[in-house]
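ZP: hey, is the heme C complex queued? I don't see it on the tracker
AM: it wasn't, my bad. submitting now with these inputs:
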Amino acid sequence: MKMMTKFLSTVVLSLTCAVSMAAGGEYPWDKAPNRLNDNAALQNGAKIFVNNCLNCHSAKSMRYSKLREIGLTDEQIKNNLLFTGERVGDMMTIAMTRADGTMWFGAAAPDLTVMARSKSLNAGPPGGDYIYTYLRTFYRDTTKPTGWNNLAFPNAGMPHVLWDMQGPRELTSTVVKQVEKDGQPAWEKVTTVYGPEGYWTSNTEPLVGYNGSASETHRFKALDPQLARQYDSDMADLAAFMTWMSDPSQLKRKQIGVWVLLFLGIFFVIAWRLNASYWKHVK
Ligand code: HEC
């Protein structure tokens, strides 16, 4: 009985932790379109990844030759994805050392091989959703060392390396919060607009008679909607590729799973009929 109470209180405790964290204003992740079974999407993701991310990050547990599994030939890998004398069998390493990364960006660029898996929340949204959101929530902020900030990862040490692919955008952030005014609690709404060049304007208005709760909303406006739409699709491909990379056998595992279930189904019917015929004459 004591064990049971202990167990239940642990469960309740961990549930309340999760809820209060959600209320703490973590930026909610967008749902990445599922393109794990789409080889063309995975190949596009691989191309964007190798061309834009390996400058700073490594993917040390990934070999270029593994890209055959998403339908690329050695010829395609060699012509499109290899630059400085690497061979198809090589690992995806980089020239920049961790020390250089820390010096230039204030933080080392982490290895990305299993990033998608490590960001996935237990029974929550998959890590591909985080990557999809992270790469689409950069905004210009001249107060930061890199000139960029990020909603999903505030104060990230990484600049928005794909900014030209996404095109210019404007962010409007609206924060409703409680403040103290003349010793009395009061509410105010602060609206901050971050322009595409990084300059921002902020406007504070008092909310008289407000009896709601604190809130924070963010809205992006793409100044080149067509470019931004293409970017969203490319980031879905990239997130899918990074999800695949974090666990390349998952596609095969699912295929094998289907055959195993099919086999079990057929075996069940055989065992059932066999059982019936064994017992037919036994009374
Ligand atoms: C100019 C160097 C640079 C390039 C290029 C770059 N990154 Fe980063 N990235 C960093 C640094 C530095 C960090 C560590 C940031 C920190 O911890 O503040 C980082 C962190 C990350 C993280 C971890 C974020 C987190 O929540 O911990 C992810 C995911 C990521 N990068 C993905 C990418 C992808 C995908 C690309 C290619 C499109 C890319 N990066 C290109 C420098 C770079």
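AM: back. Confidence is low (pLDDT under 50) at residues 10-24.
ZP: great, adding it to the tracker
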